[in-house]
Amino acid sequence: MITIRLSLLLCSAALLGLAPGCDSNPNRVPRTTQTVSLSPDRAAQSVTIPLVSAIRVVLPGPEPWTNLAWEIGSNNTRVLEQMGPLRVVPASAAPGSAQTTATSFYALKPGRSVLRFFLVRPNESEAVPAASCTLTVVVED
Fold this sequence. Notes:
It is a single chain. This protein has 141 residues and is mostly beta strands. The protein is built from 1 helix and 9 strands. It has 2 domains: 1-26, no CATH class; 31-140, Immunoglobulin-like. Strands 1, 3, 5, 6 and 7 form a 5-stranded mixed sheet that branches.
């Protein structure tokens, strides 16, 4: 009876990803990371990266007083896995530096992903983008 309960408990933990060795979202460690800076007024070239690598996308702004934020509109999650949320990177003390927003994606398998980013007011139910950026990422073996 105790064996059955223990087995059921272990099976439940495994299904929930709580058992050792059953991590459903392991920490990805890319071999290399390529950084691409995007701008709404410039068309971005497509970027090719190898498997087991990452691409870091840097977006301009937004300025804090605008109440705008970058959101991800599209990503082929079978090809690229987002490694963390979009994070605001404050401007440095260097002259001419500006606040940016950045995130990284891990190359899971060969294929193509079109990353689309939209600058919106997050509290609006039907936000009209103030700007957008698009980047095509090709992952090769």
